[in-house]
């Protein structure tokens, strides 16, 4: 919405924290019933694919027909940048990997978050539970497994693990070639999720990440994608 020059305050939040006076609420389709309970008077948009959604595009077009304001000045982020050295370390980027199942890759990502000191071991089960509750496949060949609300207390620090899987792994019938395992302290995972979604909304960026031959190359592509949409 900011990219479209719309003077609208956009906030990422958990469904349980949606304010009752929200005017527009965009959620994955599985979460829409709960969102409507939290904000019954809001205009609700349900999407199946956050990276490519006709419903969301239609909303932007409808809003753009009104008065178009100047883009807002960038606000200072409440968390470190997506590519910050503490959140994304080179040793937590894994290229040319292969896995037999989505559970295997989710557990791999979770274990690396544990080894990196980002989460307690019990957070990994929360990642598995999250994907069982609602698929963490986001479209464009990427998945973003993260823990449920119940394991937020197991997060020690915000962190990301990136896994490149050139030959793909199946996520409920969808071929996933990039997995972003994340943990966010104090709900910062919502901002991290947003930055990943924006960076991966362009299939060209995703293709370059999948074809990257080194950790440095993959991080460079992400840096560029995030900077373009900052």
Automatic annotation (TrEMBL):
<keyword id="KW-0597">Phosphoprotein</keyword>
<keyword id="KW-0813">Transport</keyword>
<keyword id="KW-0808">Transferase</keyword>
<dbReference type="InterPro" id="IPR050893">
    <property type="entry name" value="Sugar_PTS"/>
</dbReference>
<keyword id="KW-0418">Kinase</keyword>
<dbReference type="GO" id="GO:0016301">
    <property type="term" value="F:kinase activity"/>
</dbReference>
<dbReference type="InterPro" id="IPR016152">
    <property type="entry name" value="PTrfase/Anion_transptr"/>
</dbReference>
<dbReference type="GO" id="GO:0008982">
    <property type="term" value="F:protein-N(PI)-phosphohistidine-sugar phosphotransferase activity"/>
</dbReference>
<keyword id="KW-0762">Sugar transport</keyword>
<dbReference type="GO" id="GO:0005886">
    <property type="term" value="C:plasma membrane"/>
</dbReference>
<feature type="domain" description="PTS EIIA type-2">
    <location>
        <begin position="86"/>
        <end position="225"/>
    </location>
</feature>
<protein>
    <recommendedName>
        <fullName>Mannitol-specific phosphotransferase enzyme IIA component</fullName>
    </recommendedName>
</protein>
<keyword id="KW-0598">Phosphotransferase system</keyword>
<comment type="function">
    <text>The phosphoenolpyruvate-dependent sugar phosphotransferase system (sugar PTS), a major carbohydrate active transport system, catalyzes the phosphorylation of incoming sugar substrates concomitantly with their translocation across the cell membrane. The enzyme II CmtAB PTS system is involved in D-mannitol transport.</text>
</comment>
<dbReference type="InterPro" id="IPR002178">
    <property type="entry name" value="PTS_EIIA_type-2_dom"/>
</dbReference>
<dbReference type="GO" id="GO:0009401">
    <property type="term" value="P:phosphoenolpyruvate-dependent sugar phosphotransferase system"/>
</dbReference>
<dbReference type="GO" id="GO:0090563">
    <property type="term" value="F:protein-phosphocysteine-sugar phosphotransferase activity"/>
</dbReference>
<dbReference type="InterPro" id="IPR036095">
    <property type="entry name" value="PTS_EIIB-like_sf"/>
</dbReference>
<dbReference type="Pfam" id="PF00359">
    <property type="entry name" value="PTS_EIIA_2"/>
</dbReference>
């Amino acid at each position: 919405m900011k990219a479209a020059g719309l003077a609208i305050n956009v906030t990422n939040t958990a469904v349980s924290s949606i304010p009752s006076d929200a005017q527009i609420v965009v959620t994955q389709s599985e979460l829409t019933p709960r969102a409507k309970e939290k904000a019954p008077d809001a205009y609700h948009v349900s999407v199946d694919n956050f990276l490519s959604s006709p419903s969301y595009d239609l909303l932007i077009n409808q809003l753009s027909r009104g008065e178009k304001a100047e883009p807002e000045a960038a606000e200072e982020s409440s968390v470190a940048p997506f590519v910050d050295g503490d959140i994304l370390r080179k040793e937590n980027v894994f290229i040319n990997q292969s896995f037999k199942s989505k559970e295997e890759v989710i557990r791999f990502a979770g274990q690396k978050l544990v080894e990196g000191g980002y989460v307690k071991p019990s957070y990994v089960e929360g990642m598995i539970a999250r994907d069982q509750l609602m698929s963490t496949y986001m479209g464009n060949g990427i998945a973003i497994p993260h823990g449920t609300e119940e394991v937020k207390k197991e997060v020690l620090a915000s962190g990301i693990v990136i896994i490149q899987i050139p030959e793909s792994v199946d996520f409920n019938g969808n071929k996933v070639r990039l997995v972003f395992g994340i943990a966010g302290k104090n709900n910062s995972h919502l901002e991290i999720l947003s930055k990943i979604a924006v960076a991966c909304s362009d299939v060209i960026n995703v293709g370059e990440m999948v074809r990257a031959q080194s950790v440095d190359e993959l991080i460079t592509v992400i840096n560029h994608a995030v900077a373009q949409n900052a």
